[in-house]
Amino acid sequence: MQISLIGLPGSGKSTVGRQLARRLQLPFFDSDHVIERRLGCSIREYFEREGEDRFRDLEVAVIDELTQKPEGVISTGGGVVLRVENRQHLHARTKVIYLKSSPDELYRRLRHDKHRPLLQVADPLQRLRDLYAQRDPLYRETAHFQIETGRPSVAALVNMIMMQLELAGMTRP
């Protein structure tokens, strides 16, 4: 079984993905970490030096590779849905779960985070609202399941995902 998690930055893809993989006894892959290991530097540094297009090209190659593994849980970068190839590979090869968070909820969660380059702007809340407006339709188009993150704990979100997978006949109850 291949499962992938998509959603805006800060929606919990890595944290929830790690716990979900443990629960399902599957390997866990964080596409951003795979990219950083390949680059030998942070995505932020690469992004600044080479630009977004070069980064997205590399992301397409990594997503193509990860989605061809026989099983696992893949946590993706927030902008993964911007490229059509990624949307197609994720949807066709994995069960995609969209961790849907409102921009206000994300801002509350991330307002003190200094490690997210996208939010190092004058108005981070407006930035999150713009990203949501641009990406939400793409996340919905790509996803098989949508989970509202709201305020539940990580364990509660994993349980919600497990219930969706069971209802879809993808796991043993």
What does the secondary structure layout of this molecule look like, with pairings?
Blueprint: E1 2-6, H1 13-24, E2 28-30, H2 31-39, H3 43-50, H4 52-66, E3 72-75, H5 84-93, E4 95-100, H6 103-110, H7 124-142, E5 145-148, H8 154-167
Parallel strand pairs: 1-3, 1-4, 2-3, 4-5
Helix pairs in contact: 1-8, 2-4, 3-4, 4-5, 5-7, 6-7
Question: What does this entry show, briefly?
Answer:
With 173 residues, the protein is an alpha/beta fold. Helices cover 55% and strands 13% of the residues.
- Helix fraction by DSSP (H/I, runs of at least 4): 40-55%
Shape: globular
Distance between the termini: 15 Å
Strand arrangement, largest sheet? 2-3-1-4-5
Helices, by number, come to: 8
Major beta sheet summary: 5 strands, parallel
Radius of gyration: 15 Å
Roughly what fraction of the amino acids lie in strands? 5-15%
Q: Would you report the number of β strands?
A: 5
The helix-strand sequence is EHEHHHEHEHHEH
| Stretches with pLDDT under 50, minimum 5 residues | none
Keywords:
173 residues, five-stranded parallel sheet, 8 helices, 5 strands, globular
